[in-house]
Known about the structure:
Bound molecules: alpha-D-galactopyranose
CATH class of the largest domain: Mainly Beta
Shape: globular
CATH topology of the largest domain: Beta-galactosidase, Chain A, domain 5
Radius of gyration: 27 Å
Mean pLDDT: 97
Low-confidence stretches: none
Number of domains: 3
Amino acid sequence: MIHSWRLDDAHQTLVLAAQGARLAAVVYWGPRLPDSEDIAGLHAAGLIDLTGGMLDDIPALSICPEAGRSFQGQPGLVLSDDAGRPWVPEFHLVGAEEGEGSLVLSYADDNGALSYRARFGIDRETHVITAQASLESARPMRLHWLAAPVLPASQHAADMIDFAGRWCGEFQPVRTPWAPGIRMRESRTGRSGHEHFPGLIVPGQGATNTQGEAHAWHYGWSGGHRMVAEELPDGRRQIQFGHASGTEPEAGTRFETAPLYATFSPDGINGCAVAFQRHLRDRIVTWPKPDAPRPVHYNCWEAVYFDHDLAELKDIASRAAALGAERFVLDDGWFGRRDDDTTSLGDWVIDARKYPDGLTPLIEHVHGLGMGFGLWFEPEMVNPDSDLYRARPDWVLGPADQIPGRNQMVLDMSRREVRDYLYDRIAALLSDNAIDYIKWDHNRLLPTPDAEQTRGAYALLDRLHGAFPMVEIESCASGGGRIDFGILGRTQRVWLSDSNDALERLRIQHEAALFLPAVVTGSHVGPRRSHTSGRVLDIRFRAWVAAQRHMGFEMDPRELSEEEAGVLTSATTWWKANRGWMARADILRLDSADPAVIAEQQLAEDGARFVVFAGQAATSAQISPRPLRLTRLSAEAMYRVDLVNRADLTGLSRGNPALKSGPVTLSGQYLMRHGLTLPWSFPGSMWVLEGTRLQEEGTS
Ligand code: GLA
């Protein structure tokens, strides 16, 4: 007998099926199937044939492939009993609960000691499938590996795309051809990591941002993940995601994976990106004030570093407000005796040398300017040179002789007394001061990855949120070292990168949009000469790159010339005028025919307007700009398209593309097939275009 289940939304169908009581396998995941499809029949239809050199039956590539049933690829579960003896379960079905867009399958081990549960949900609005596995045991077991429910990868795909990165260079896509064997990615840093963003895209052959089909995965966990993409000798392919191996060092009776988010797009990689962007914004993030616009930030880090002086900070705050900032974030340097990065992490007490009357005078000044006030913390860390470490050296995670990172050690967040101490310190500061924002940093790699550390950090964040639900939190880890849907279930913004170099940022933002909407993606206008690359970039470019996401400033405003301040103020005014609809827009990556141009289109929820950001990241090979094709417009509709920053034309643009002199009115078809012809521009510049769909004649 075949059991079968289906989950559908308008874009996709996921079919699971099983022979008798065996573990279910995903037998179809792709474009929506007709309602009349005989889904039980898909099991037999998809059975692969046998020939020489194989067993006499095909071991199922199930949601948790079982070594005990002769599955010869990577199993979904690796376990031993408390004495260290391998435990190889064979599961049988004990229950299936089907709901509206949900399915829970429960299994028990034939030996009776274990139960395995897989939960699936499909979100019909966002098109994201959420899948999570858990394991319970009657007696303590040692878990070596538990995969979230396994989804197969298409055999029609030629490549897979996962992500590498580094400090100041996050989200570097790595395209690997499929081949027999395993591609494994593992973050053993204790963070989701700059180096290993937990995401995967498997594009169909020929798929681009705007066309073709694609499947995508994201593992929503901040403690480091392991991904296994395996092609078996028989050609089948499986994708496994779970916590990094060895991160459950203690024997236990209950284990659970993080939620795995997955989506299929029938219309380009953008379909996956939009699904993740919307799901994160509308389902994962908790917004303290859902209807409030995202405020323009000012962060003082690159202006003053550790050198805090009240009068100077007030002056900077006044200048930032005049430029348009609406939230002032006091970064590192306000606590303990933190004059550099060698000291005081853990001592979350205002430094009376720098702030003899506490933070109130600064906060009142900031409030007087109409801005909110945010404060930097790095709660999970301690410097050996700190009162906390001197009092509680035993609170440190890992061995005493470990290699430090940025002169600091990690606190053991699994310990209740550590979390209580941090809660008390942070809660006292939040209670005594009008603080509505925290920048929550995590600047070093763990000595060893441990899931309990991540659970501890989550617990502290959850407790603080319970007590201070109106305080927003930004997740930072030397820039983008802790970006994932797990941390974003507890925070509202990510510091995407420590690079404020707009050229680097343009690329990082473009790639990060595969998963992140604009509203959570912090982007600041940096100093004229970037502190992390040494590159000098024009204020126009810096301002427009920041305006692509959640905008802010991070330079010393005293370095701005009058002209620069004017440019920045007007770009900020533009951003404020548009942030309402842009907060709900989809970021669509454009297929630029010119590799020197990195371009995107943010399309309003109702399709009635859009903005295109076309960044000239390098000098083009050809003399004149290639037409830029737009996407997801209505072919029949007419659009009025105008250059927002026509004033940025240079003298080397000598011709007459229509856009140089005024708006153009073009059909969606033309814009999507021929593309927009842009004026010539310098490398390190950005064209910003606004589009409006015109009412059809005769309609009002
Ligand atoms: C990290 C962050 C920076 C800044 C410093 C402060 O490097 O990424 O933005 O907050 O810490 O020490």
